[in-house]
Structure formats: structure tokens, C-alpha cells
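Input (AI-2E family transporter):
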Amino acid sequence: MHPLDRIRQSRELLILSALGLLLLGYILIHISHILSPFVVAAIFAYVLHPVVGWLERRTGLPRALVIAVLYVFLIGFLVIVGFLVIPALIDQVQALVNLLPAVIESAEQQLQQRPQIRIGDIVVDTEALLKRLDVAAQALAERFSREAVPLLLTTVEVLIKTFVFLVASFYFLLQGGSLVARIRLLAPRRYQRAIGRILSQVNLTFGAYVRAQFILFLIMASATYVALTVLQVKYALALGIATGLLELIPFIGPWTAGTIAVIVALAQGSAPFGWSPLQLALVVALVYFTLRMLEDHFVIPQLVGHFVRLHPVVVIFGVLAGASIAGILGLLLAVPILAALKIVLMSVVEELRHPLPREVILIRGQDALDNLAERIADPSRRDIVVLIESGAVTWDDLPRIQAIHQIAGEHDVQLQVVTPDPVAASIVTAVGLPLVTKAPVEWRQEATLVPDVRSAPPPAERVAQPRAGVEIDGGVQPVGSAVQVEREVRHGGDRD
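Output:
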């Protein structure tokens, strides 16, 4: 295939891939409201997949039974934790919500004492801020009053989604590996290994990110709860869980959690150790800042490592785009989806820039023809150049060469033939294989099977030195040296 044809096909493939991704994105946007239980189920399966695999290996029980037993234990654990934690959590959340009017009133009192606030050369009119606070307070009151009306419908919807989540997560855990294998088998054989490699990298990255976020939630929620309890900050349980959940939102979440905790410390009215509320708020801010630094420098590198490497601007854009497209779910999944897209894009670019080298096989007898048929069936093979020596094949080998041509077509392998023998050239032409040389070529060493360039022996041991040349790109070039084979035959010197 001419290099220009290769570039043209690659460009067409990229255009079709881009159109396919746009169509897929359009469909997902319009059905995002029903995808949430399936996405959450997939995340849950990612978290539990290593646990299920470990239990399956240790116990020897069927995978379905292991998953069922694990579900029973998890549901029992959640029920116990729910009875112990949820009542206190609900009380603290309600108290925290009830605290909002007091916070707004305290802010209004502070603003009323100062008609203007000067920040450098900027003067802020506090009267306008007071009006905005009144509007915000009324909006919050109306919002909470409206939330109680559709409570029954919301409960029914949650029950349905919970059932879908349980069923979907069970099957994801049961057949997750086979689903990936089926996706790989949908591709043509010549691309299956590359697609399998991409899927493996995406799976590794996505799994590492999801498990890291789950561990981060546990670490930050526990550490924050303990710290706020020691500092006697009210609603420590609710603030700790909120901090863990907000950790799932890159950049914005941690600072939002810290801001909420500082506001609560300022508004609670009392402080321990003889501190003022302002001093308590400063200590709370210092605690959040310290936890954030420890997380960034020690926890995240150990949990995620080199799996997710994205520029901060790209992450911010992805988070905002995900929130706009799919709400909270898009906000949480923006980073792993961006990481997966990066892996796919980098793999495609690498494939276009550095395609796998062609394999060169020297034919000197019927055994080599049989070996050629076996090598074609290898799904990792894409392009094979066949060097047929004079007298290596006869007209009796026509059915064999036809079968080889058919196998190559079935496996999407491109075969090209270099031969000085007129009989071999006639057979190859009759079968329909591309012939890329006309000049006579002789080899002085025994038949040699040349593997891929990347794992081949030194050039002097790979291919015998020729006594003639091959017509490539309009001129006779020396054939047989590893350098020439790699430059002309493996990397673009092919012809249709």
C-alpha cells in the first residue's frame, strides 16, 4: 500500500471515529437520566472486583455464590451502620440547615455596621449585599418547602433505581471480564490486540481512580470528623461526611468543604479552649489546609500514581462540561472519562506515527508455506512480506497459495510478495496477491524466518546478503540487508 493511501485511510478512520464519538455522546446526553443506576453499578463493581476475585481464589466457590454472600454481608453492614449513624446524621443535617438563617442574620448584622467595604481600590456597597442575602434566604426557604411535596415520587424512583443498581452491579461483577473480551472480539482480528491493550489500560486507569476516590472518601471523612470533634465544632459527623463526598469533585470540592466548616465554626457562637469564634475558624481552616496538603503529596500519589495524568485546565473544563451534561454524575465521572479518552487518543496517535513493523518471511519450501499459514492466523500480525526464492514453489502449490490468500483475507492480514521466480510470480499474480519486485534475487544462506524488527537478532544474522537488487521506488535497490528491509519493505516501500 502506498504511504499516501495509508495516510488517507488513517484520516478517514479518524473522521469516522470522531463522528461515532459525537453520535454516542449525543445519545448519552439524551438518556443520561436513566443511566445513573447503571453507571453507579459499574463503579460499585470496579470497587468490589478485586475483593470478589480474591475471595473466589481463596475459597474456591463459584463466583456467583461469592458475590451473593458478599452482597448479604454488605447489606447487613449497611443496615447496622444505618441504624447507628443515619439518625444522628439526619439530626445534624437538619440542625445545620436550620443554622443557615442564623448565619445569614449574623452576616447581615456585620454588614449593617459597615455601610461600605473597601478592598483595595474597590468599594462594595453593603446595602446591595443585604438585598442579595434576603433574596437568597427566601429562595432557600421556598426550596425546602417545595422538596417535601414530591417526596413520595422521589421515594418510588429511588426504590426502582436501587433495584436496577443491585441487578446491574451483580451482573457486572459476574461477567465483567467476559464483557471486555466480547467488546475486543467485535473488532477486526488485526486490531484486536491493539484494542485489547487500550481496553486494558482504560480498565486499569478507571479502576484505580474509582478505588482511589472511595479510599479518599473514607480517609478524609474520618480524619475531618475526628479533627472537628476534638475542636468541638458542631455537626462534626455531617461535616465529615460532606467533606468526604466533596472530595470526589476535583479542585472545587475540597475548598467548598473547608469553607462550609469555617462558616459553621464562626456561626456556632461558642469555642473551646478559651478561643474566640474567629480563632476557632482559623484553626479549622488550618486543619483543612493541612489535610489537603497531606492528601495531595502523600495519599493521591500512592493511590492513583501515574494512572491519571491530566492538565489542571483540562480537568476543570471536563468537570464543568460533565456537570452541564449529566449533573452530579457527570461531575464525578469527568476525570476518569477524560483519562480514558486520553488513552484512546494517545494510542491512535502512536499507531499512526509508529505502525508495527512488517514481518518478513523467507520461503524455500513447502514447510515454510505451512508455517506462513500459521503465522497469518496470529491476530497480532498485520502486514507480512513474503520472500519466495527461485524454485521454492511449483504449480502444484497453487491450491496452498490460494488457501494462504484466503486465510489472509479472513484475518485482515496484508500479504505482499517479493520473488525472482517467474513461476512463483505467475502463481502469485493469478491468485491476486500483490507482487512488489521484478528483479532476480538469490539468497546464499539457508532459509531464514525473520521476526519483528523490535525483537530480531543483529542485522548480519537476519537476512543473507544479495547478489542482485529489488526494484523499489523506480530504482534497483540492494535487498537482504536488515537496514534495507526495515526501511523499504517494512516501513512504507510496499506497493499495491
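The radius of gyration is 33 Å.
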